[in-house]
Specification:
224 residues; alpha+beta; Trefoil (Acidic Fibroblast Growth Factor, subunit A); 4-stranded antiparallel sheet; two-stranded antiparallel sheet
Length: 224
């Protein structure tokens, strides 16, 4: 027998664009839209990621701060090393100077007639100029245009005859002495020979390696 369809229940709307207010069937979600679930999951992941970032960042900052001083120290090391090099204690330059023995500063180079001598006293203030044979070295004169030069190995004062031999004989190259704070004056044309005390006289001699020779060939530069 034909039965007419039941009339719609009040409060329920059917059709396109409507909302079904009927209770959900078993096995189906409770009416939450899949897009909403996706946004919820994304929000949870964001919160977890932010928490992890905030907890790990202080450790990274501390590590960077710990390495910063070491890097700064390493970068400043060359500058520190450069400032540790001290100038030589005793240096010959152009100007007027007195040469004295390092072992006894009262024994000084002086003029004895035509010869150079080492005697106790005020000494002779010698004028030091750039080397006649080599401007990297020096020549010394007594103020009367007589230059200190070696002749037959003995040191004397002679007028410049402008010969190549004279210029070489009258040129001496200073170097650090073997005693602290001293210099040695090496002959330009006899580079294995240097100014050396023999009693009160001065010669250019070749070192014999003894402590006595080192003391007798070590000089200091003093102001007049």
């Amino acid at each position: 027998m034909y039965q007419p369809p039941e009339a719609p229940k009040p409060g329920t709307v059917y059709g396109r664009g409507g909302a079904d207010a009927r209770p959900p069937e078993k096995g189906k979600s409770g009416g939450v839209h899949p897009g909403v679930l996706g946004l919820f999951v994304v929000a949870i992941l964001f919160v977890v990621g932010a928490f992890a970032y905030l907890n790990l960042r202080p450790e990274a900052d501390e590590s960077a701060q710990a390495s910063a001083p070491a890097s700064a120290a390493a970068s400043s090391a060359p500058a520190a090393a450069a400032t540790t090099s001290a100038p030589p204690e005793n240096e010959l330059t152009t100007g007027k100077w007195i040469l004295a023995l390092k072992k006894d500063a009262e024994v000084r180079l002086t003029v004895d007639g035509d010869f150079a001598a080492l005697k106790s006293g005020d000494g002779t203030a010698l004028t030091v100029v750039k080397g006649l044979a080599d401007e990297a070295c020096f020549s010394l004169h007594d103020g009367d245009d007589r230059y200190l030069r070696h002749f037959d190995y003995r040191l004397r004062f002679d007028e410049n005859d402008d010969s190549e031999l004279f210029r070489s004989d009258a040129t001496f190259c200073p170097e650090a002495g073997l005693t602290v704070g001293s210099i040695q004056l090496r002959s330009k044309n006899y580079p294995q020979y240097m100014l050396h005390q023999r009693d009160s006289e001065v010669y250019i001699d070749k070192s014999d390696g003894t402590d006595e020779f080192i003391e007798q060939s070590g000089f200091v530069v003093k102001k007049p």
